[in-house]
Amino acid sequence: AFAAVKTDGSVVTWGRADRGGNSSAVAPLLTEGIVQVFGHQGAFAAIKANGSVVTWGRADFGGDSSAVAALLTEGIVHVCGNCPAFAAIKANGSVVTWGKAGLGGDSSAVAALLTDGVVQVCGNQGAFAAIKADGSVVTWGHSDVGGDSSAVAALLTEGIVQVCGNNNAFAAIKADGSVVTWGMAHFGGDSSAVAALLTEGIVQVSAKPPAGA
Length: 213
Known about the structure:
By secondary structure, the protein is mostly beta strands. It folds into 2 domains: 1-74, no CATH class; 78-205, Methylamine Dehydrogenase, Chain H (7 Propeller). It is built from no helices and 14 strands. A 3-stranded antiparallel β-sheet has the order 3-4-5, with no helix packed on it. A 3-stranded antiparallel β-sheet has the order 6-7-8, with no helix packed on it. It has a 3-stranded antiparallel β-sheet with strand order 9-10-11, with no helix packed on it. The two termini are 27 Å apart. The mean pLDDT is 96.
């Protein structure tokens, strides 16, 4: 499906109805004030000028945000989607998540780390990684695809400036130009074969599913 933002702040949608192509259920909320729309495989989330969020599409993929509606009425500055969930950063640096619980929609296990200081969130097929203002990284979602970063936790406590995700892994650039990877090994989560080349001088990482970072 597609969602187009017009100059008057309204949104037009089309495509597969149950994946966001039909936005009639929230049509009155999409007539004005939309500044940005974020979509993934099954749903859309739109930020309005007043900092609120409107969602539609497949309910269990985040099209239904009623469980966190009270947290999405104001202050949202960015929304990131992975395949079946969304994560929204608020102006106070906190994060709100919804969608498929086991694939990033439920961040309760790391909730205490997401109450402030988050400056960037990156998602992949089933997990999220958030960079905090102190350069540390917080991860959640499906453990196999990067939701569990405990194996490299000591390398993610400071100095992270960018995180990039592909389908099933993450790669993070540190301020010293080194790279840290985690997630499914054969999708790029294991970079040991080129580790000697990733210790310094890296300025950008890009990903293309299903290859590694």
